Every structure is written in C-alpha cells, then in structure tokens.
Amino acid sequence: MTSELVIAIDGGNSKTDVLLVDAAGNVLGEARGPGASPQNVGVAACVETLERLVLTALAGAGLSGDRPFGVHTSAYLAGLDLPLEEEILHDALAARGWSPSLAVGNDTFALLRAGTSGGTGVAVVCGAGINCVGVGPDGRVHRFPALGRISGDWGGGAHLGEEALWWAVRAEDGRGPWTALLPAVTAHFGVDSVVEVVHRLHFGRLPAHALNDLCPVLFDVAAGGDEIAQGVVDRLVEEVSVLAAVSLRRLDLTGGTPQVILGGGVLTGVAEPVIAEIERRCRKVAPHAEFRVVDVAPVVGAALLGLDAIGADVPAKERLRLLSGGVTPETRHDTDS
Q: InterPro entries of this UniProt entry (predicted)?
C-alpha cells in the first residue's frame, strides 16, 4: 500500500475521472474513461470500469497494483441519488479491497467541495440531468431524490434538448408558434426538415444523448431575442434558483455569506447574464450569498474530500488545487482581504 495515497473518483454519465493524490496534495497518477454511473450501466459494470481505471492510473504512476492500493478511496458518482444506492455501491467497492477506508456519494457533493473552502454551502449541477445538495456548517445535509420528472425535477441537458426539439417540431407542423429554434435545430443536424430528426431518434439512427448538444443552440437562439427559446431558459433559471433557495432555507443558510456553487456542462457553458439572473433570484433568500461557477474538475472535489478524510493540512489542499489549475478557496478570503 502506498503511504497515505488517496484514490479519488468522479463518475459522470459521459466520462469517469480518477486521480491518485498523496497526503501532501501531489497528483501521482490519473486516468479517464467512459461514463460509469451505476444507474446507467449497473453496479457490476460500474465497479469493473472503476477498477480498470484505478489500475491504469496506478500503472501510469509506476505504483504497485497490490491491494490495498492506498489508505482511502473517495468515490462520487452520478446516479447515486438515494442513500440505498450509495450503500449498494459502497459494499461493492469495499469488497474490492482498494483501501481500508472508503466514502461513496453523489457527484454533486464533489462539485460542492471543488468549489468551496470547506465543503459547506449549496451546489447545483446541471449537466445531462439536474441536482442540488447542501451541507451546513453543523454537518446537516439537504438533498433531493433527483430521479427526473417522477421526483419533481425539471431541467438538465437532455430535458432542455427535448424542449428545443419540441418547440421546433410544433413550429414546423403548425401546432405551435414560429420560433427561430426551427431553423437552428435543422441547421444543427444538417437536415431539411426537423421531422427527419424525429425519425432518426425514433429508429435509433441518432442516439438520444444527441439532444444534449442542442443546449448551446437553445441558449444562442434565446440570446438572439427569440421569445420561445428565452422562455425555456427562464424556466431553467427559475428551477436552478428554486433548488438553491430551498436548500439554503432548509439548512438555515439564509444569513451570513453562504457559498453557492454552480456547475455541470450546461451551467458552465451559459452566458454571464444567465448566471447573474440566478444570483439575483437567490439573493432574495440569502442576500449576501457568494456565487461561483466551478472552475476545477469535480474529481478535484472528490480528491479534496479524500484529503479531508485523512486529515491532510490546508497547504496540501492548496497544492492540489494549484496543480489542477483551479482557484484556491482555502485561501481565497485571505487573498481578497
């Protein structure tokens, strides 16, 4: 076992990142592979993918593949939306014997840690799906089921893409008002008629995740003044704001300067006015909240949670952030002053 080695994992729907970090915050190895959400691929396939990536990272770092690999594993994955799902994956990973200690959770917790100085505050992620978690200074946690429409969710890249296509189809066949989404969607897919996109999706000639790529199209059309597209964007802004506001209230974080972290492919790709409007609405609940669009990979958050777990010092966490090319919230307030 490598002394004080932390195995950090961020598993999204589209990709999985692994970092090997020592107690001083040095990155010793890394690997990237396909999405490994147990919700999508199943627990067994998820564990196999994760172990393959961990072994790849160890080999690339010139480290032994003998078990245990390190002292702690910090694994945060999409699709772990309920405590039971976390428990199931925890047991499956514990059986592999990677490390004496192991923490497993939803990837939104890694986003929160990546963007905050100590892991407390509220994080909203909008990537393929949408989710929000909050952690109070007293350790209380607030989260949502995040199971899609059946659990009250609205938003995420897949949903926004479907909305853009829905409005484009109705503009083309006369059931809805004209919208610039129609020519924008047909141009994006290189077709003469938007119904051709529908046929391709229906017959499997176009993967469902291709709709995620319509998000930038939607935001561009909205920025051009299209009322239909802007209505969809406004609904997303409201949803993100409501998620954050509810968590802030439930954790009694409406006073002081709570940190609100925004991340995921959709929110990191929008124009500044969209983020500014989310901030404006959230500040009705928490007037002095501090907002950040996360600027480091969520796997860094998983690694920071791992360093927290082994009791690493603040300089180690600063070093990890610097090596990963991100801002260092651990010292940000001192620097700002």
A: ATPase_BadF, ATPase_NBD, Euk-type_GlcNAc_Kinase
- Within a domain: residue 209? no
The DSSP element (H or E) to which 277 belongs, if any, is: helix 272-282
pLDDT digits over 259-281, tens only?
A: 999 999 999 999 999 999 999 99
Q: Residue 105 sits in a domain of what CATH number?
A: 3.30.420.40
Domain ranges, residue 52: 6-117+297-336
H/E stretch holding 267: helix 265-268
Q: Would residue 174 count as lying in a domain?
A: no
Q: What is the pLDDT of residue 206?
A: 95
What is the total count of domains within the chain?
Answer: 1
Query: Residue 325: phi, psi to the nearest 5?
Result: 80, 20
For residue 181, tell me if it sits in a domain: no
**Structure pTM?**
0.91
Nearest alpha-carbon partner for 81 in 104, 114, 102, 103: 104
Q: Is residue 320 part of a domain?
A: yes
- Tell the burial category of 221 from Cβ atoms under 10 Å away from its Cβ (0-12, 13-18, 19+): buried
What is the number of other CB atoms lying within 10 angstroms of the CB of residue 226? 21
- Cβ-contact 325, 294 below 8 angstroms: no
Beta bridge partners of 131: 125
DSSP 138: T
The alpha carbon of residue 12 and the mean position of all alpha carbons in its chain are separated, in whole angstroms, by 7
Counting Cβ atoms within 10 Å, is residue 327 exposed (0-12), middle (13-18) or buried (19+)? middle
Q: What is the pLDDT of residue 116?
A: 93
pLDDT above 70 covers a percentage of the chain that reads 95
pLDDT in tens, 105-145: 999 999 999 999 889 999 999 988 999 999 999 999 999 99
At residue 1, does pLDDT exceed 70? no
